[in-house]
Amino acid sequence: MKGHNFSSKREAIFKTIASTKTHPSASWVYDQLKEEIPNLSLGTVYRNIALFKEQGKIITVASVDGEERIDADVSDHAHFICEHCSSVIDLYETELSPLEKQLFESGFDIKRKNVVFHGICCECKEKLN
Amino acid sequence: MKGHNFSSKREAIFKTIASTKTHPSASWVYDQLKEEIPNLSLGTVYRNIALFKEQGKIITVASVDGEERIDADVSDHAHFICEHCSSVIDLYETELSPLEKQLFESGFDIKRKNVVFHGICCECKEKLN
DNA sequence: ACAGAAAACAGTAATGATTACTGTTTTTAA
DNA sequence: TTAAAAACAGTAATCATTACTGTTTTCTGT
Predict the structure, then answer these.
(1) At CB < 8 Å, which residues of chain A contact B?
(2) Domains of chain A with CATH codes
């Protein structure tokens, strides 16, 4: 059965994802680890990311500049994506309950909600002035 | 200057996008039109979709099964994506104002917000039982 | 500890959506 | 009407992601 054997690479991949606030892409994780683990394969990173998603240990935040960005914080929170620097920033306190309640009452089975704001972050806003 | 000449294909592409509630992908639009316009090129569909986005006439909703899905309804509304049938459904009345207000006060320049629920739609839910 | 089976892996090739390129056709504005 | 700009078809290239193949690692029961 898949995902039940120990693997030090899997552990390292998860640790890298879980210990950053950057909401990384697969290639970012790979780049972070390839010095420490020279024979790591990018396919292994992708395979384990897919596994973590199945296991509910990570979520997909959004696709930014053609790359999928992930998050090991699976708690209910929103994100802000900067159009200028492509950074992804955590936001808490979403208060979507009225809409969720309405959906539930309409018979929808909500597995996950994904709230993403797009714009220019305050750092880039200052730089651009 | 780009996007300022008349083009019947551009018109047809926009009309196709604007007259559906399916939140189509580029290839869906292409498939819809290729009977009516046999010499249409998929590249033209992509090029015009990019133009419409720049012009703010359409938005990207989400990436579903590896394909970007678009919407000519640029008004403030949310979406529900069914994990089973991949349909994208409009939802209105989001009520995100408290969070938006907080972002504005923190110096973020919000261009767009994107609220997406993932789960099983009520039609699929019935079928699966 | 050891052997066989299952899982995980590296390395590479394939896939498929999207983008770029090239030469041609269409539109525009004077 | 004509030349410049824009739009296009058709094709090739790009690039993130996935699939494949043969090898290595982990696990489980003895």
Answers:
(1) 62-63, 68, 78, 80, 83, 91, 93-96, 98-100, 102-103, 106-122, 125-126
(2) 6-71 (1.10.10.10), 78-128 (3.30.1490.190)
